[in-house]
Amino acid sequence: MSQALPRPRHLPPEEELEEKFIRASGPGGQHVNRSETAVQLRFDAANSTFLDEAVARRLIESAGQLADQHGVITLRSESSRSQYRNRVEARRRLAAMIERARRPVKARRKTRPSRAQREKRLTEKRQRKQIRRLRKPPPVDE
Fold it and tell me: Which residue stretches of 1-142 are H helix?
């Protein structure tokens, strides 16, 4: 009997997740060569009924190289020697990614540096210029 997996709040339904178990890399002796403890979790964000279009677009964009050109996000977890813990970790990471994508992007408000900030920057530039000038050898008079 397999253990029930914890269900993070922002995780899509089981039908939309695809798990594949693969051999993990790294240390572990003979055990790592014989057991498939690493998990590859795939989620088709582009065709998901769980996410609305804007969230799916932000999720795919933020996933970067984890998403392919069709909008399928593939997460791999092999940090633990336990298949169960790797499954939980992969699902937790996907839920965290979805939660971040659900937050709307805050619009950037254009700002300008104050007059005091501009003057301070120019003063510091003049000071750096003076320091560099002092490092040079004095001019040779003939």
Answer: 30-34, 53-63, 83-102, 115-135
Residue 2 and residue 14 in contact, taking contact as beta carbons nearer than 8 Å = no
| pLDDT: which is higher, 109 or 10 | 109
For residue range 20-33, list pLDDT tens digits in order: 888 888 766 777 77
Confidence category of residue 42, pLDDT binned at 50, 70, 90: very high
* Closest residue by Cα to residue 83 from 37, 128, 22: 37
Pick the CATH number of 14-102 from 3.30.160.20, 3.40.630.10, 3.40.630.30, 1.20.1250.20: 3.30.160.20
What is the pTM assigned to this prediction?
0.68
State the Cα–Cα distance between residues 65 and 38, nearest whole angstrom.
19
CA dihedral 123, 124, 128, 131 (to 10 degrees): 70
Distance separating alpha carbons of residues 22 and 76, to the nearest angstrom: 9
Q: Which of 44, 94, 51 is nearest to 86 (CA)?
A: 94
